[in-house]
Amino acid sequence: MTDVTRRTALMSAGLAAAASAMPASAKADIKAALKPFACNLDTWYTDSPFADRFALAAKAGFTQVEFWPVRRDGMDATKARALLDTNGLTLTQFAPAAPNFSDPANHDALTTMIREAIADSAILGCKAITLVGHHIVDGMSREAMLSGYTTGLMRIAPLLEQAGLMALVEPFNTVNHPGHLLNGSRPAVAMLRAVNSPMVKLQWDFYHMQLEDGDLIEKFTSAIDQVGYVQLGDVPGRHQPGTGEVNHVNLLKAIQAAGYKGPMGLEYYPLENDYKRAVSDAMALSIAAGFA
């Protein structure tokens, strides 16, 4: 057994042991244990067609899902809504394809995209979208790109506020997502505080934050006023909590203590495509962290 395999086995065993200490009634209610989480349909069940993943998530016990673009390969908001309804699922957020609006030349395209996303969200019954669009622009200084991105957010904020739709700005990391303007929490938190809109907040993906920032609990707690949504994923590997180095039980307790009450997206790739184990691990984490 390699060191990585041994560590993974020990961490998974630790979550299972924590779950086994809970009352049998708590363990038996799969939907209750999975209720805090939204299954990401672009990282789970990837060996099945996208349209089939809704039913697979529901069968596993999830009641909430998230995904990346809705407009793809013949899919649109109306068809996705039908799949959600048929399977008793709600959509927490999705990620429409955004233009690179660090460049002000793309601000008109950004406005068009936001109007489309508002229309799609109304059909989907969804109250949030993830917003990226911060690739490095050749020939522009960092200061000019930050200014362009901030101005773009300020331009769309009134549209979002009128629609009651939250845009979730997602920073990445420089380890395996090179070529982006926003990495980690610091530049993004400062930017969002400058924008100062209740409908423009942060997509706080702990996978990216661990790779770029570390110090997860302190940074999250200090920026809770700008957090709109949370996603999970362990490091290394971007697999489920319990397979890597982060103590997710402590992390989720801290998230609750900071005041975050929203769903948590499971935007990770289940280890070895073992979805049954990934569901069990998610349930164990929920129970151990006091959610179920």
Give the gist of this structure:
With 292 residues, the protein is of the alpha/beta class. The protein has helices at 3-20, 24-28, 30-34, 50-60, 77-86, 107-124, 142-163, 186-195, 206-212, 216-222, 248-258, 275-288, and strands at 37-40, 64-67, 90-94, 128-131, 166-169, 200-205, 227-232, 264-266. An 8-stranded parallel beta sheet has the order 3-2-1-8-7-6-5-4.
Structure description:
By secondary structure, the protein is α/β, with parallel strands linked by helices. 47% of the residues lie in helices and 12% in strands. An eight-stranded parallel sheet has the order 3-2-1-8-7-6-5-4. Helix 11 links the parallel strand 7 (227-232) and strand 8. It is globular. The model is unreliable at 1-12 and 16-28 (pLDDT under 50).
Give the beta-strand count. Answer: 8
Rg from Cα: 19 Å
* Span of the ends, CA to CA: 33 Å
Estimated share of beta-strand residues:
5-15%
The chain-level mean pLDDT equals: 92
The coarse overall form would be globular
**What share of the residues lie within helices?**
40-55%
Can you count the helices?
Answer: 12
Described by strand count, sense and barrel closure, the largest sheet is: 8 strands, parallel
Explain the layout of strands and helices.
Layout: H1 3-20, H2 24-28, H3 30-34, E1 37-40, H4 50-60, E2 64-67, H5 77-86, E3 90-94, H6 107-124, E4 128-131, H7 142-163, E5 166-169, H8 186-195, E6 200-205, H9 206-212, H10 216-222, E7 227-232, H11 248-258, E8 264-266, H12 275-288
Parallel strand pairs: 1-2, 1-8, 2-3, 4-5, 5-6, 6-7, 7-8
Helix pairs in contact: 1-12, 5-6, 6-7, 7-8, 10-11
